[in-house]
Description:
Blueprint: H1 20-35, E1 49-54, H2 60-71, E2 75-80, H3 92-100, E3 106-111, H4 116-123, E4 129-135, H5 141-155, E5 163-167, H6 174-185, E6 190-194, E7 210-212, H7 215-219, E8 224-227, H8 233-236, H9 243-250, H10 254-257, E9 265-267, H11 280-283, H12 290-309
Parallel strand pairs: 1-2, 1-3, 3-4, 5-6, 5-8, 6-7, 8-9
Helix pairs in contact: 1-5, 1-12, 2-12, 5-6, 5-12
Bound molecules: phosphoric acid mono(formamide)ester.
Amino acid sequence: xxxxxxxxxxxxxxxxxxxxxxxxxxxxxxxxxxxxxxxxxxxxxxxxxxxxxxxxxxxxxxxxxxxxxxxxxxxxxxxxxxxxxxxxxxxxxxxxxxxxxxxxxxxxxxxxxxxxxxxxxxxxxxxxxxxxxxxxxxxxxxxxxxxxxxxxxxxxxxxxxxxxxxxxxxxxxxxxxxxxxxxxxxxxxxxxxxxxxxxxxxxxxxxxxxxxxxxxxxxxxxxxxxxxxxxxxxxxxxxxxxxxxxxxxxxxxxxxxxxxxxxxxxxxxxxxxxxxxxxxxxxxxxxxxxxxxxxxxxxxxxxxxxxxxx
Length: 310
Ligand code: CP
């Protein structure tokens, strides 16, 4: 569905099942953009138009896709659901078809419903490419790619020797799912999944991972800590007793980080709840790669747009 018969990417909907060679090629291309060697054709997408079609809020993903498209000389249309005709009842599919009719070839879709981007990709015209910028709790593939690029820059390409902890609300996290798919594809040595029992998935999402709710034990000697945002509505739902208790048990403090390997790195997809899942001293500390992730996001999204549309 997301690849042509010859293996080229047609859409990017999920990292699950994406061939290792395709994933690594996207990372390599993104790294070339980071290194400044990727500007061989700075007008790769000149004459193309892409639309950020977001039905949920976003800062990093939407703006970095726009920045990526601009750097490849594409025209960028920004769709804002709150001021659009969806408020009059127009469906997401009719919205896409109407924007397609304006000559737009690339759609970056964020939607609260699982499978929304795939449904739009299925209905799109041949020649239209859809990128999933986060659907429900299912997938956020470009976040997974930028996390892998950031990890690879810090720790090298031999993922088999790495131990990684993924911590927090894994049950509801599309970022965690895409990270898990990519880490497995890249042959990660060990994944420790940690969070409150109520926020751990009860399906096969964590197959092959060490799973537990003891954060200190999960941190022991890891090379990277991938923190997740606590979705505050989970407290209203009664899945988390209080922010204070969450911070006590699953907040990454400077003292806790000392349990990880001395050169361990810290990632967080943003937005962060400072003082809840991560302390300022860690978020802004020497081991934090959080803003590097954001910079890498532009390069990864350039690589994806180029692969789909150039
Ligand atoms: N990481 C991420 O998806 O952030 P935004 O919600 O701001 O796009």
